[in-house]
Amino acid sequence: MKTIWIGLLCGAIAIDAATASPFDNPRAGGDLSVRMTTLSGSVNGVSAAQVHARILAQRSDPTPDLLLMREKTPPARKPGVAFLLSALVPGAGQLYNGNQRGYAFLGIEAASWFARLSYLDAGNRKQDDYEAFADRHWSYPRFHDTAGEDGCLWTAEADSLIQSYRDEDAKQYYEEIANTDSYRCGWDDFAGSYDPADPDAFSPRRADYRKQREKANQLKDRANLAVAALVLNRIVSAVDAFRVARARQEQAGSYRLESRLTGSPVHPRLDLRVTRAIP
To answer: In the record, which residues are listed under signal peptide (predicted)?
Structure first.
């Protein structure tokens, strides 16, 4: 006949209360404990002591903890500190709060910096390429000497401006020879490609130069988007860290229930504890 032992969880409920108030306790918070202990008996002629003896023969530790259930409340943090940390390093405020979500913000930060530096480097290299291309195929003397030739739009004002840009503003210089028709005769393939029937057409090398500039600008625009992502990530991370820290502070004085099932299968004991953290 199969032996079945049923532990009887009966009432013996003892409430342990300290004579001093929780505020006199040197620990951070008050503590109210409720303990429930079982009474042993016998079922089907087999006493609890006999069952206990069999278990002791198989286990070296007669009273292991069977179950621990505890509501863990992360520590309360200062919202201002959490906000500042995440504003400086996204995710730092979350980690300060004990929130693993901080690693996600750190990952976004790293990815954004990688994108920023990669696109900026690619854009700068592309810029070096198109500037070298322009230096090979466009020249001021050629532009100056074509005054009055068919299709050329030389003017004294344009001549003066391009000299000024060449000496003082390289960025504007390379932009003017790409976009201003007054300087189109400075390209070394203009004379051979000019068609009076289509006077607004670009020479092949000028068109190629414009495409190179466009590609470089696209890469730099993406680098600027990465900067926007860096700023947005800081804002979101800082606000999230502040919000979580403030919510933790508001909950710091609330009660929580801890329960622990200890003892052995023969003599289980359920400990209940109500605690209140005092910030």
So the answer is: 1-20
